[in-house]
Structure to design on (279 residues):
């Protein structure tokens, strides 16, 4: 019964996300940007067209690292605070529905909608690349695409969970939206700038080389990059990133476990805050 109630809420959120055209627009945006990167990725070297599949995946990883966190935050920042602003939260909780069921259902619905957008957008681009580039129809290429899709889904879920935490902790939608944008800026831009500053000022000493690979794990975006770029190896336009971490062996399963932690911990925190906060 509890699971049925949670899934009912998830289905409603899923339908609402598609009804407001957000997810459809996101899927189209993903597909267009992916195809543009794949086709024009070799323009700097004087080549147009689908040149290298591994380079395309590396470029898509960079694109996804910027876009997916932003979309995950924007579609879920109003999860709780939106109901509170609309004076509907108390009415919803008067139904035979617990706070945990409500938040879990909303989280699952937003995650499902974002994952569908990712799969449709990037999946369509991957299909077209496979049609236009017959040499990419290999098991290795399919595994790389599967790895990208799975890690992108977890990246999106981690930022949906973060948005739920922000939504549960704030009192109005405008503040939640502002905090979501700040969280995106810190995660996508500021965190890597701080790591770069550490590299510059430390001069690459032994302590920095020992610590730096572990600092990357404190940002789900960098974990996402590691999952994909370490799988591609050298020569895919990611030599600089791999060069800074080549002394450290990242286990693929370990990276996925860390990515899963980045989903579960913020979501658990959002549940904790929501349970303790007055309606």
């Amino acid at each position: 019964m509890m699971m049925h109630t949670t899934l009912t809420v998830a289905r409603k959120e899923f339908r609402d996300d598609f009804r407001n055209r957000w997810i459809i627009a996101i899927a189209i945006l993903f597909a267009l940007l992916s195809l543009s990167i794949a086709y024009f990725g070799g323009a700097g070297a004087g080549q147009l067209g689908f040149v290298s599949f591994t380079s395309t995946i590396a470029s898509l990883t960079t694109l996804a690292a910027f876009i997916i966190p932003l979309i995950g935050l924007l579609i879920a920042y109003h999860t709780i605070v939106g109901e509170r602003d609309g004076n509907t939260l108390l009415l919803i909780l008067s139904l035979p529905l617990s706070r945990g069921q409500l938040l879990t259902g909303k989280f699952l619905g937003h995650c499902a909608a974002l994952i569908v957008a990712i799969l449709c957008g990037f999946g369509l681009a991957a299909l077209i690349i496979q049609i236009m580039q017959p040499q990419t129809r290999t098991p290795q290429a399919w595994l790389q695409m599967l790895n990208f899709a799975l890690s992108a889904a977890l990246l999106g879920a981690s930022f949906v969970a973060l948005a739920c935490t922000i939504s549960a902790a704030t009192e109005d939608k405008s503040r939640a939206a502002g905090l979501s944008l700040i969280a995106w800026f810190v995660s996508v831009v500021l965190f890597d700038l701080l790591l770069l500053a550490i590299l510059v000022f430390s001069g690459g000493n032994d302590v920095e080389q020992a610590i730096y690979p572990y600092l990357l794990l404190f940002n789900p975006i960098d974990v996402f990059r590691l999952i994909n770029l370490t799988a591609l190896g050298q020569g895919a336009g990611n030599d600089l990133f791999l060069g800074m971490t080549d002394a450290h062996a990242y286990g693929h399963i370990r990276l996925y476990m860390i990515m899963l932690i980045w989903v579960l911990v913020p979501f658990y925190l959002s549940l904790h805050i929501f349970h303790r906060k007055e309606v």
In short: The chain has a mean pLDDT of 82.
